[in-house]
Write a structure and sequence with these properties.
By secondary structure, the chain is α+β, with helices and mostly antiparallel strands. The chain has 2 domains: 31 residues; 93 residues, RNA Polymerase Alpha Subunit, Chain A, domain 2, CATH 2.170.120.30. 28% of the residues lie in helices and 31% in strands. The protein has 3 helices and 8 strands, in the order H-H-E-E-E-E-H-E-E-E-E. A 3-stranded antiparallel beta sheet has the order 1-4-7. A 3-stranded antiparallel beta sheet has the order 3-8-6, with no helix packed on it. Strands 2-5 form a two-stranded parallel sheet. The longest helix has 21 residues. The N and C termini lie far apart (109 Å). 8% of the residues are buried. The mean pLDDT is 86.
């Protein structure tokens, strides 16, 4: 018995080539849709950064080390959400001494459509600002 020649193999591969390519395309589409629609959960731990700190103000207490978000959505979009959020940026513009409450921390995230925030810890953030004490150097005159 002899092994089949290269002509038989070539004929097998090229027979119904259009149908084979169409089948491959349909299989790829089905795989893509099922992997896109499958919902996963991921933790996103972000450090807190403040921007636009008012002049003459200082923090009365320390900020939490990080805020934990639980995200839900397709795994491809979850990876995009992780890449686009390196820190939780909170804007203090227009504030002064006193307490500022940030109740909806998820509003400060950059999330693609299809991603939901299912849990936040802590759920809100309260920042207290006080008037900063002016430091005098040795050459300054004290009032």
């Amino acid at each position: 018995m002899t092994a089949p020649g290269p002509d038989i193999f070539r004929q097998f591969c090229t027979r119904n080539l259009e149908l084979k390519l169409l089948s491959l395309l349909v299989a790829c589409c089905i795989w893509g849709l099922t992997s896109y629609s499958h919902r996963n959960h991921a933790e996103l731990n972000l450090p807190v950064h403040l921007k636009n700190m008012p002049r003459g103000c200082a923090l009365a207490s320390q900020l939490p080390r990080e805020i934990r978000f639980t995200l839900s959505g397709p795994s491809l979009l979850l990876e995009g959400a992780r890449r686009s959020n390196a820190a939780l940026m909170l804007d203090l513009q227009g504030s002064g001494p006193g307490t500022i409450l940030f109740p909806h921390l998820e509003a400060n995230l950059h999330l693609p459509d299809g991603i939901e925030v299912t849990r936040i810890s802590p759920a809100s953030l309260e920042i207290s600002l006080i008037k900063a004490q002016k430091r005098y150097s040795e050459g300054d005159q004290h009032p």
